[in-house]
Amino acid sequence: MNNLCRWFDRYRDGELDSRKRARFEYHLEQCDRCRSGMTFLSNLKTVIEKGSVELTWDFSHQTARRAFEQSKRWDVMVISWLRPAAAWIACAAMLFVFSILALTPSRTGAAEYAEYETLLALNDANGMMPQAYAEEMAHSAENGGVNR
Amino acid sequence: MTQSQDAILVERSLEGDELAFAELVKRHQGIVSRRVYRILGKSLDHADAVQEVFLRVYNSLRRYDPKRPFEPWISRIATNYCIDQLRRPRSGKVMLWTDLEEGEQRRLLSMTRNGDFESILREGLERYQEVAMSLLQELKPKERVAFIMREVENRSYLELARALDVSELGARIRVSRARKKLQAKFHAYLEGFGKR
């Protein structure tokens, strides 16, 4: 592959300046792969461009009738009412869950007291419980875990 | 076709005027039909597919901004519909390269290579057309849409980017990939023939 082959897309898109375009056109004469690729794409374009399918003469009226009939169907109307309602319900549910999470203290006083007792049990034996920490935990447990 | 006429028809359609919507369909059915045909290929239910696009248009009319041109908006709906269809497994029979007889394959390749495809079209050989369309099945949905919009409809990369909801660079990459894949397939056919 010649390094000019990389200009293939830019040539096809008409994005090469006149000097580069002339160089690429000279390259096309030499490079069989680029030349046949270029011809192939042009022919493919022609084929696709020419193909078409005719619609019936009253297609537009049939389509409009179907669209209006569909919009009047009770199930479509119910779905169209429910769609925004479902979104509102989901938002309200999320707001409720977040409110509960935000208002509920992460740890209760009882839980902290249990931890305090566990620490006591673990550390008393080793005599490693710092006096200040023990006092803070005891105070916290008395106030329902608010100051931690 | 003016933008304001489209906007007026949209407004009247939203007020319940069925004839106004029929007029809107009539104005744009050509562009939608061509887009659907070029991307999805010829099928027995082509009219249903085009109708389905217009039903989506009708259901989205309230979201249309009358300050913007109607045609790109409706094209985008048509494109999205086609991408949705391409992502579904297809059951319809498609004419493939291998369905052609050897003589037909040789003739098609020779004409394609020598730039004489016009003669095939003059002869009205739909078989060849279907085969050419089936080549596009090698492409991923967005590559296929990008190829059609750029190569066949001469749309700018900016329009492609908007239609495909990708960056302009992304659109360029998809067109380039599509061209390479199609050429590779074509060269594989040529080489296959050379070995016979």
Structural write-up:
The complex is a heterodimer of chains A (148) and B (196). Chain A is 74% helix and 0% strand. Chain A is built from seven helices and no strands. Chain B has ten helices and no strands. Chain B is elongated. In chain B, helix 9 (157-164) crosses helix 10. Chain A binds chain B through residues 8-9, 12-13, 33, 36-37, 39-53, 55-56, 59-68, 70-71, and chain B through 16, 18-19, 21-23, 25-26, 29, 33-34, 37-38, 42, 46-47, 50-51, 54-55, 58-59, 111-115, 117-118, 120-121, 128-129, 132-133, 135-136, 148, 150-152, 172, 175-176, 179, 182-183, 186-187, 190.
Strand residue percentage of chain B? under 5%
Indicate the mean pLDDT of chain A.
78
Number-wise, the strands of chain A total 0
Strand content of chain A: under 5%
Q: Secondary-structure element order of chain B, as H and E?
A: HHHHHHHHHH
Number of DSSP strands of chain B?
Answer: 0
Point out poorly predicted stretches of chain A.
none
Which term fits the overall shape of chain B?
elongated
Element pattern of chain A in H and E? HHHHHHH
Question: So what's the overall shape of chain A?
Answer: elongated
Radius of gyration of chain B (Å): 19 Å
Helix percentage range of chain A: over 70%
- Alpha-beta classification of chain B: mainly alpha
- Which bin fits the share of residues in helices of chain B? over 70%
Query: Biggest interface between protein chains, with counts per chain?
Result: A-B, 36 and 50 residues
What is the oligomer described by this structure?
A: heterodimer
Helix and strand content put the structural class of chain A at mainly alpha
